[in-house]
Automatic annotation (TrEMBL):
This is Electron transfer flavoprotein subunit alpha/FixB family protein. The lineage of its organism: Bacteria, Pseudomonadati, Bacteroidota, Cytophagia, Cytophagales. PANTHER family: ELECTRON TRANSFER FLAVOPROTEIN ALPHA (PTHR43153), ELECTRON TRANSFER FLAVOPROTEIN SUBUNIT ALPHA, MITOCHONDRIAL (PTHR43153:SF1). SMART domains: ETF. It comes from the Bacteria. The keyword Transport applies. Belongs to the ETF alpha-subunit/FixB family. Keywords: Electron transport, Transport. InterPro entries: DHS-like_NAD/FAD-binding_dom (IPR029035), ETF_a/b_N (IPR014730), ETF_a/FixB (IPR001308), ETF_asu_C (IPR014731), Rossmann-like_a/b/a_fold (IPR014729). The keyword Transport applies. Residues 3-184 form the Electron transfer flavoprotein alpha/beta-subunit N-terminal domain.
């Protein structure tokens, strides 16, 4: 089985979620190629994708592809799929991944499954397990047809590191003007060095922190852990924190290895954005706060006492 993986990178650094997608492909197929876009990613970075199991990386180094023009990416991926003789396209579930996946599926008449958490069951057909209802349930979906597009949920697959270096091959897809009908005229980077949807660790604060002036201790804990900062909806509604930090049903859905909720009650709408987290730690002064029911570890205590002590202890550990 030959598989093509779409690689996302952040200013030249290949995203961990894409390495997870490559690792998934390596477990599934015997021939794994990948495709990456942009002149701003270095060849040695792409060679290292081999460690996760890709034998080859097609590099579309034309500057025109530096920005995430979804239509152009989808056309190039469909062409690369044909060139590599791949039947399955694997990518990481993300806003870009989902948009690309849908277009590639249409262009290649493929079946599509997103938020996939496990290798397929191929004993009878091709059945994949999808995470649904914000991680509360799973759906087993039968994918039909030879061509398939599979988007992998973040943190669902361990990254393989035992492969060799991948061969990086320059690839220039046929460029159609219609692929560049929409152009991105400017981008603005969100505050914070670690992006919330990508974060391995998230430190999140709620209304229990009383005001924006108290966020220093949240940032100090996040810095110590190398974490992104998040918040509950009221906190962003009151403009204590920017809206892109709002976690929950109506905000960002996160699936980090560790989610630390501080002064957040644990309303169902907040939990809807965090219940795919591997480990949840709750710090709340009310032992009856609903969040404790969803927590792996909890500290009943005043955040203003607990958080600085925790940060200090972590710094000294
Ligand atoms: P509160 O409910 O006020 O809780 C504050 C917590 O802090 C309490 O548990 C309290 O015990 C604790 N606390 C107070 N002082 C301290 C202290 N010193 N130390 C430690 N703990 C302390 N909410 C979201 O977050 N995300 C969403 O996406 C979202 N979507 C929504 C969509 C809809 C349609 C609706 C109706 C609501 C939505 N909400 C969402 C709002 C949600 O219902 C809750 O109102 C909200 O999550 C509560 O935020 P909070 O926990 O920060 O505040």
């Amino acid at each position: 089985m030959s598989i093509l993986v779409f690689i996302e990178h952040d200013e030249g650094v290949v995203k961990k979620s894409s390495l997870e997608a490559v690792s998934y492909a390596a477990h599934l197929g015997d021939s794994v190629s990948a495709i990456a876009f942009g002149s701003n990613v270095q060849v040695d970075e792409l060679q290292n994708v081999g460690k996760a199991g890709a034998q080859k990386v097609l590099h579309v180094a034309d500057e025109k592809f530096n920005q995430g023009i979804i239509q152009a990416y989808a056309s190039a991926i469909a062409e690369a799929k044909e060139k590599e003789g791949a039947t399955i396209v694997v990518l990481a579930k993300s806003s870009l991944g989902d948009a690309v996946a849908a277009r590639v599926a249409v262009k290649t008449s493929a079946s599509l499954a997103s938020n996939v958490v496990d290798l397929p069951d191929t004993s009878a057909g091709f059945k994949v397990k999808r995470s649904i209802y914000t991680g509360k349930a799973f759906a087993i979906v039968e994918m039909s047809g030879d061509n398939k597009v599979i988007a992998i949920k973040k943190n669902a697959v361990a990254v393989k590191e035992d492969g060799g270096q991948a061969t990086v091959e320059s690839f220039m897809p046929t460029i159609k003007d219609t692929d560049f009908n929409a152009t991105i005229t400017g981008t603005e980077k969100a505050t914070g060095t670690i992006l919330l949807p990508e974060a391995e660790i998230v430190v999140s604060g709620g209304r229990g922190l009383k005001g924006p002036e108290n966020w220093g201790m949240i940032e100090a804990l996040a810095d110590t852990l190398g974490a992104a900062t998040g918040c509950s909806k009221p906190v962003s509604d009151m403009e204590w924190r920017p809206h892109h930090e709002h976690v929950g049903q109506t905000g960002i859905k996160v699936s980090p290895n560790l989610y630390i909720a501080i002064g957040i009650s644990g309303a169902i709408q907040h939990l809807a954005g965090v219940n795919s987290s591997k480990i949840i730690v709750v710090i709340n002064k009310d032992g009856e706060a609903p969040f404790f029911k969803a927590a792996d570890y909890g500290i009943v205590g005043d955040a203003f006492e607990v958080v600085p002590k925790l940060t200090e202890a972590l710094k000294n550990s």
